[in-house]
Write a structure and sequence with these properties.
- By secondary structure, the protein is of the alpha/beta class.
- 34% of the residues lie in helices and 16% in strands.
- It contains 22 helices and 24 strands.
- The chain has a 5-stranded mixed beta sheet, covered by helices on one side. Strands 20-22-21-23-24 form a 5-stranded mixed beta sheet, covered by helices on one side.
- Strand 7 and strand 8 form a beta hairpin.
- The longest helix has 22 residues.
- It is globular and about 80 Å long.
- The N and C termini lie far apart (82 Å).
Amino acid sequence: MDNVKKVLTVNGQEVEFDHERNLLEVIRKAGIELPTFCYHSELSIYGACRLCIVEVEKRGIMASCSTPPEAGMVIHTDSKQLRELRKINIELLLANHNRECPTCVRSSNCALQDLARRLGVEEIRYKQVEKNMPKDSSSYSLERDPNKCVLCGDCVRVCRELQGIGAIDFVYRGSKARIAPAFDRQLNQVECVNCGQCAAVCPTGAIVPKQDREKVWNAIHDPEKIVVAQIAPAVRVALGEYFGMQPGENVAGKLVSALRMMGFDYVYDTTFAADMTIFEEATEFLERFTKNEHLPLFTSCCPAWVKYCEIYYPELLPNVSSCRSPQQMFGSVAKKTLPTQLGIKPENLVVVSIMPCTAKKTEARLPKFKTNGVQDVDFVVTTSEVGRMINSMGIKFDELQPEAFDLPFGFATGAGVIFGATGGVMEAALRYVVEKVEKKPLTKVDFKAVRGMDKIKEATLDVAGNKINVAVVYGLANAKKLAEKVVKGEANYHFIEVMACPGGCIAGAGQPITHNPEARKQRAQGIYNADKTMPLQKSQDNYMVEKCYRESLGGQPGSKEAHHLLHTYYQNRSQLFDARVSVLQGSAPTRLPIAVTICANQENCPGQKLLGLIVEYVKNNGYQDRVDIDATFSSRPSEDGTICVTVGDKIIDRCEFTNPVNTEENLRNHAAFDKVKKSIDAALK
């Protein structure tokens, strides 16, 4: 019976179906592209827009996305009634939308615009809803305009289902319903990790990447400034789509030519810094693997993953590579070396990153990535932003002759290029690690077991008699599955690559938005094709990186100078987003915030006793008017009772409260409590 063909009829055409989960997928299989607004094949079925409606004989009009296929169904996708209903639905959506199309970032690539044209909507018969709600520009990565939101829920589902976070959701009911972060906070005040996948699926421009184009133009037009660009690997296989080219076409040379026409003084390749990342990260892995310490090692190239780990898995921070991302490695090395090489004042050098990623915008603004108060990377523009900049100059991109990157930071290997696809960082590291461990030239550089679009990939390598277990994952909800196994001791991995975006950087939120499901695969293939055309395919063969180590980085990977410029540290952010209750509130105009995390799920939590000791200490020293003390309630219990104390900007981490005993006396004499007291004294005396 399992071999019996299942058939239904679409517009008089018989169509077989098997694993399709709804009528919409079967109809697409028949070569008919029904209009959809809230449907994404990787997300749950929502069925809110009612644009994919069809008529099923003897059943009436139904939403095809939420109706499972059945053998014998007779379906009609077009009729006068269906057309009129779809037009009404689009008009209602437009009435609920702030129509500032000429100034919208998504203009010309807006699903609402496209569907209105496609369905012949030439006038809107319904009064426009006036929302007049304030825009949220708090994030360095994203901008949210509630006035453009039509409540399709795409952003809510991608944040919850793909990333497992839920930083935004529906609030209120009926005519007051809208989408917002928890407690109506701004994006920079909630668990948003800046991945931007909400912006990638938002069909109306209600959430878009923060735009920094004008800041870059101002720098270019400043005669005192020398403006240099670095181009990330994934940009070269997606930018062409902005100009009508096929996904995966490598346009790196054309982009170099365009940037020079726009006024950039030098154009470099972030792939150079990706090779440098492998020098550092692979060396770090070999040291940990040899000592069997802090394994598995997690990659640190993706800032959205790093922030996710800081919020949800601070206990794994010692396992995250201390290497900066390639973007930040490039920025620190460029700011150190280029002023001397170019004969300019350091303050006149402007570093601009061209990235596929919105999280890179926030990463570049982190205080820890400043030198002498100046950012290592000055501005970050996305692939789509640089496409708009090229268009604004009237440059005919497809007619440009390719030009080469500037040296020395334009010289790279194929290992650095493949960083742009999921599994690329892992494969580049393995090309380095295997050769170093086996102490002989690597004959085959391809490690295809870590390639592909599977959400979680695992592999075991036999390297000179050593078993190395690796994993590659994309999407933070999937990363959570691996993280849970590691925390519970159920996994035996040595090395794990994590990327927040589906398929890796090729599908970053700053890339041209595409509705072609094959685009990711084509972009990834373009990455691997670029790898094959490079004269060198192993990071360790990049002699320009070796020269940089000799001249500026202490001679070798892991040196003191290299660690200073190329490595970083992480912050336990778990407490910052927990629920809070005020315990003591001062009256002074300026007060020191103090917070103590208490585990709501643990009986006899030592954090409660510690909170009492801190309140006692504050009162005994007469500080009570100058402090605010909060109890924060954590949903992330751990063996130490989730003790974590924040004194102003200083965090006394849970790991510093090693094996606390649940008695007030032992906590009073604990070294970490002394650190808390000293931090309070230092801030207030």
